[in-house]
């Protein structure tokens, strides 16, 4: 088999940046998975289900970029993910961190879009438009969850239970919008 790389319309810089995004999406999936596990053992079944679904969605985002890189003649690289947080002090801590993480992902996607504009890589620019819209939704969802914490409060005798119930409603009303 020939190991010669086919020509690609991707610049080396765009390809490298897309591979970094693959790593970030994989990290996102692993982080959501870790959060889901913590919630499950703490008895937050709806939160766990919500987070398991989002872990899978983040994995689908990763695969979407991974497959795109290869489809346009690049070389997608599987990342090694280390040092995932596995313990949390509260359910609120998880969702505060998830909002921060989603903002980080949004900034990374925006950087990629800007890079594609500078490199005049219109195909990748167009490909990334889906991720721009997806990140707006991800941040909005994370903010809505934080608002639930603010409205109900964890200090309320049934606060944690009510919050978990609200997360269950989000799972029932939503679903993964990721496509591979």
From TrEMBL:
<feature type="binding site">
    <location>
        <position position="61"/>
    </location>
    <ligand>
        <name>Fe cation</name>
    </ligand>
</feature>
<dbReference type="GO" id="GO:0042802">
    <property type="term" value="F:identical protein binding"/>
</dbReference>
<keyword id="KW-0963">Cytoplasm</keyword>
<feature type="domain" description="Ferritin-like diiron">
    <location>
        <begin position="8"/>
        <end position="153"/>
    </location>
</feature>
<dbReference type="GO" id="GO:0006826">
    <property type="term" value="P:iron ion transport"/>
</dbReference>
<dbReference type="Pfam" id="PF00210">
    <property type="entry name" value="Ferritin"/>
</dbReference>
<comment type="similarity">
    <text>Belongs to the ferritin family. Prokaryotic subfamily.</text>
</comment>
<dbReference type="GO" id="GO:0016491">
    <property type="term" value="F:oxidoreductase activity"/>
</dbReference>
<keyword id="KW-0479">Metal-binding</keyword>
<dbReference type="GO" id="GO:0005737">
    <property type="term" value="C:cytoplasm"/>
</dbReference>
<dbReference type="InterPro" id="IPR008331">
    <property type="entry name" value="Ferritin_DPS_dom"/>
</dbReference>
<dbReference type="GO" id="GO:0008198">
    <property type="term" value="F:ferrous iron binding"/>
</dbReference>
<dbReference type="GO" id="GO:0006879">
    <property type="term" value="P:intracellular iron ion homeostasis"/>
</dbReference>
<feature type="binding site">
    <location>
        <position position="102"/>
    </location>
    <ligand>
        <name>Fe cation</name>
    </ligand>
</feature>
<feature type="binding site">
    <location>
        <position position="25"/>
    </location>
    <ligand>
        <name>Fe cation</name>
    </ligand>
</feature>
<comment type="function">
    <text>May alleviate iron toxicity in the presence of oxygen.</text>
</comment>
<dbReference type="InterPro" id="IPR009040">
    <property type="entry name" value="Ferritin-like_diiron"/>
</dbReference>
<dbReference type="InterPro" id="IPR041719">
    <property type="entry name" value="Ferritin_prok"/>
</dbReference>
<keyword id="KW-0560">Oxidoreductase</keyword>
<feature type="binding site">
    <location>
        <position position="135"/>
    </location>
    <ligand>
        <name>Fe cation</name>
    </ligand>
</feature>
<dbReference type="InterPro" id="IPR009078">
    <property type="entry name" value="Ferritin-like_SF"/>
</dbReference>
<keyword id="KW-0408">Iron</keyword>
<dbReference type="InterPro" id="IPR001519">
    <property type="entry name" value="Ferritin"/>
</dbReference>
<feature type="binding site">
    <location>
        <position position="58"/>
    </location>
    <ligand>
        <name>Fe cation</name>
    </ligand>
</feature>
<dbReference type="InterPro" id="IPR012347">
    <property type="entry name" value="Ferritin-like"/>
</dbReference>
<keyword id="KW-0409">Iron storage</keyword>
<comment type="function">
    <text>Iron-storage protein.</text>
</comment>
<protein>
    <recommendedName>
        <fullName>Ferritin</fullName>
        <ecNumber>1.16.3.2</ecNumber>
    </recommendedName>
</protein>
<dbReference type="GO" id="GO:0008199">
    <property type="term" value="F:ferric iron binding"/>
</dbReference>
């Amino acid at each position: 088999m020939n190991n010669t790389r086919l020509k690609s319309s991707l610049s080396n810089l765009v390809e490298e940046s897309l591979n970094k995004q693959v790593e970030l999406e994989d990290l996102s999936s692993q982080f959501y998975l870790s959060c889901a596990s913590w919630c499950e053992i703490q008895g937050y079944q709806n939160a766990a289900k919500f987070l398991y679904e989002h872990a899978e969605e983040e994995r689908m985002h990763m695969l979407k970029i991974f497959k795109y890189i290869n489809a346009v003649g690049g070389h997608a690289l599987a990342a090694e993910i280390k040092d995932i947080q596995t313990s949390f002090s509260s359910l609120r801590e998880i969702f505060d961190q998830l909002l921060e993480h989603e903002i980080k992902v949004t900034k990374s996607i925006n950087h990629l879009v800007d890079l594609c504009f500078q490199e005049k890589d219109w195909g990748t620019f167009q490909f990334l438009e889906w991720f721009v819209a997806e990140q707006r939704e991800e941040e909005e969802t994370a903010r809505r969850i934080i608002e639930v914490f603010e409205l109900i409060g964890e200090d309320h005798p049934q606060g944690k239970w009510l919050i978990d119930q609200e997360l269950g409603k989000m799972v029932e009303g939503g679903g993964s919008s990721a496509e591979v």
